[in-house]
């Protein structure tokens, strides 16, 4: 049962085939290159990889504009290469999730071309049309500042079509049963080729009602159950990880009260408050967000992330909080995007300070849920703010100090490799970090390993333990009579905290440090007292009777020292 729900205690690694590894030297990453890097991913210890869209596409939105759901963009290889890759992943016990982008297609998709050309075609009703320009045509844009409208006139169709995103991404009429059946067919196809589920793009928009008269879209939640049911019929352990930036009140509707809808959702609420906590060293709003998103069905799971391939969306914070995050991590206009977010990568936001990067990652890994990490963050990659919009944080993986960071033999990579300066591949790369035991890469490998050995976080219930200091967050998780406890100091200066674990008796007296030797016993007041360095973090197992026993054994061995020196 526990192992069946693999996503409850897993680490997911997100990457783009296009910018990960190029095997054939044409400057574009491909499945053969990715397949060669499977041992790297396996060594890092991740449980699953999530691939961003790789289907055929004119690439006007980095593949989130699909023109054929059943084909691979030829620049990345063939379906044969894809199956070699899923097979290789399986051999190493790695699962594969892929993006499912079905809120919209590309305008180049033959369905749309057919729909606009022929009013009698069955595809006409696969999209959303209006003879007249709808009143709210200038509202609801997802990319404000770049996208002008949500309804665009098509000369051939002589009608307006609806697009929640860019105008080259016409929305599918997802209420149409034929469209729904096609979505299932797409899922079935990729499941058959070896994937264990989907990161479903833009879920609230997929299930929302669409049309010229719709002012407030209504979510058709049944659709989510249909997706899940179908997937589980085809492959029992496959999952859906939903991109749904919704309010905590609606979370349960997405998970399904009986746990019969989405298996996983990204926790956007926690993500934004986490960045506020990092910016202000005030963890109270983060705690509030954690509590607001606490309830979920036993089989459901949160995906906890720091940065993803999009901008860091701060839209749900209060104005003052948002300004504090901007001031700390994206003060200049060109670092910001769509009036609501920051487009930088994690490491530059945190000034490349390894202590702070470890703190952020440790916090992410100990939040209730399953961590989803992004390629390059394990080595602290930077961004290229000269690239437009979100592309700045999508540059090729920096493997080594060879030309183009070892990503490609071509001198014209699909996106420029970051070169020179503090983030350049010349010294910031996986090969260099491999050789250094204290590097971020080796640290990440160790923390992933430890995180997988602490299933309490994925499966258990959390409680926030009060300290007097809002900069220090103490959390305890309980599961199956085991408890673990985490301390994070978000301030840059040392703090002294005292707290009670809430676990009585002999068992609660000792906290065993899981990452070092800083074990902690209760003091005479029955509390644990800790001086924790700036940006410090501790992972403890509560109790650790093994440790107590071992220690008394060692203490009572009179000849220990003699034995060592005397041989
Ligand atoms: C999601 C993706 C984003 C894409 C958009 C349109 O928000 O994360 O990258 O542009 O959907 O498909």
UniProtKB/TrEMBL annotation:
Instruction: Note the superkingdom of the native organism.
Output: Bacteria
Cross-referenced SUPFAM superfamilies: (Trans)glycosidases (SSF51445), Glycosyl hydrolase domain (SSF51011)
What the entry lists under CDD domains is as follows: AmyAc_TreS
Identify the stretch annotated as signal peptide in this record: none
What InterPro entries does the annotation carry?
Answer: GH (IPR017853), GH13_cat_dom (IPR006047), Glyco_hydro_b (IPR013780), O16G_dom_2 (IPR045857), SupH-like_C (IPR054049)
What residues does the Glycosyl hydrolase family 13 catalytic domain cover?
14-435
Kindly name one Pfam family recorded for this protein. Answer: Alpha-amylase
Which PANTHER family has this protein been placed in? Answer: ALPHA-AMYLASE FAMILY MEMBER, MALTOSE ALPHA-D-GLUCOSYLTRANSFERASE
Q: What is this protein called?
A: Alpha-amylase family protein
Q: Which organism is it from?
A: Rhodoplanes tepidamans
């Amino acid at each position: 049962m526990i192992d069946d729900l693999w996503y409850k205690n897993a680490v997911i690694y997100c990457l783009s085939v296009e910018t990960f590894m190029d095997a054939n030297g044409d400057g574009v990453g491909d499945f053969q290159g990715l397949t060669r890097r499977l041992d790297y991913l396996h060594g890092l210890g991740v449980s699953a990889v999530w691939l961003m869209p790789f289907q055929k596409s004119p690439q006007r939105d980095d593949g989130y504009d699909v023109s054929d759901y059943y084909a691979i963009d030829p620049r990345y290889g063939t379906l044969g290469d894809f199956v070699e890759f899923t097979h290789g992943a399986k051999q190493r016990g790695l699962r594969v999730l892929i993006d499912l982008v079905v809120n919209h297609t590309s305008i180049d998709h033959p369905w749309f071309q057919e729909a606009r050309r022929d009013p009698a075609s069955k595809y006409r009703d696969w999209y959303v049309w209006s003879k007249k320009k709808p009143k709210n045509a200038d509202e609801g844009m997802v990319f404000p500042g770049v996208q002008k409208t949500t309804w665009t006139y098509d000369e051939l169709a002589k009608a307006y079509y609806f697009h929640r995103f860019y105008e080259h991404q016409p929305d599918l009429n997802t209420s149409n049963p034929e469209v729904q059946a096609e979505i299932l067919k797409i899922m079935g196809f990729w499941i058959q080729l070896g994937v264990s589920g989907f990161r479903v793009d833009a879920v609230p928009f997929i299930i929302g009602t669409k049309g010229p008269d719709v002012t407030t879209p209504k979510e058709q939640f049944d659709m989510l159950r249909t997706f899940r049911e179908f997937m589980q019929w085809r492959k029992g352990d496959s999952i859906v990880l939903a991109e749904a930036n919704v309010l905590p009140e609606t979370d349960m509707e997405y998970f399904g009260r009986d746990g019969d809808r989405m298996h996983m959702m990204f926790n956007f609420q926690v993500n934004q408050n986490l960045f506020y906590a990092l910016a202000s060293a005030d963890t109270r709003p983060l705690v509030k967000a954690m509590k607001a998103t606490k309830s979920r069905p036993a089989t459901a799971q949160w995906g906890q992330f720091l940065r993803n391939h999009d901008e860091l969306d701060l839209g749900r914070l209060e104005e003052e909080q948002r300004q504090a995050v901007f001031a700390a991590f994206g003060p200049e206009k060109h670092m910001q995007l769509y009036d609501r977010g920051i487009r930088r990568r994690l490491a530059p936001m945190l000034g490349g300070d390894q202590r702070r990067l470890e703190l952020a990652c440790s916090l992410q890994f100990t939040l209730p849920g399953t961590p989803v990490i992004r390629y390059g963050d394990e080595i602290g990659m930077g961004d290229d703010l000269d690239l437009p919009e979100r592309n700045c944080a999508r540059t090729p993986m920096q493997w080594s100090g060879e030309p183009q960071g070892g990503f490609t033999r071509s001198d014209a990579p699909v996106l420029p490799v970051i070169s020179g300066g503090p983030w350049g591949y010349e010294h910031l790369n996986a090969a260099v970090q491999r050789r250094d035991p204290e590097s971020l890469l080796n640290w990440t490998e160790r923390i992933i390993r430890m995180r997988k050995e602490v299933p309490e976080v994925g499966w258990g219930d959390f409680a926030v333990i009060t300290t007097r200091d809002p900069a220090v967050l103490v959390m305890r998780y309980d599961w199956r009579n085991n408890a673990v406890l985490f301390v994070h100091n978000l301030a840059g200066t040392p703090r002294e905290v005292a707290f009670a674990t809430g676990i009585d008796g002999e068992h609660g007296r000792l906290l065993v440090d899981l990452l070092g030797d800083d074990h902690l016993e209760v003091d005479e007041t029955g509390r644990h007292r800790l001086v924790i360095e700036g940006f410090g973090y501790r992972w403890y197992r509560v109790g650790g009777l093994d440790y107590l026993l071992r220690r008394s054994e060692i203490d009572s061995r009179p000849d220990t020292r003699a034995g060592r020196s005397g041989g």
